[in-house]
Amino acid sequence: MIYKFEKIVFFVLVLVLASCKTESKQALKTESISFTKEGDLAVIAAETDSIKASFDIEIAETDYETKTGLMYRKSMEKKQGMLFIQPTESLQYFYMKNTEIPLDIIYISQAQKIVSFQKNARPFDENTLPSNAPAKYVLEINAGLSDQLGLQVGDSISFSRN
């Protein structure tokens, strides 16, 4: 009887081991998010009415696009940016959750005038980065570019869609 019991236990053990997966785990691969040019944007100097900078832009205006923004991106070229179009002009509050690229965040009024900046926003920082005045548009560009290009409060933007 004991011998028969041992045979049954052995048989069950063989079945259990045979049913175990022998495949090795594979790393999950995520797709990188690439830039999609959806328009052009120019920053115009307040004092001279000349173009200070030009950018190829992606436009974020749906709820999903504005919540996701530049999250999960590894890099962005110098002449690229993302323009957020908010439904109404109001105080804006951005943060850098899941954003790997240091950014300058430029807040722009409904009249398309720059009203404030949040410069050198740190990747992954979840602290609130508010506009200091009501804004309808928000332009995100690589950190340091707003100073390098001499962008100032009072300069204006002009943009077009592709």
Automatic annotation (TrEMBL):
* Alphabetical list of Gene3D superfamilies matching this protein: Protein of unknown function DUF192
Q: Which Pfam families match?
A: DUF192
UniProt superkingdom: Bacteria
Under which name does UniProt file this protein?
DUF192 domain-containing protein
Name its species: Flagellimonas halotolerans
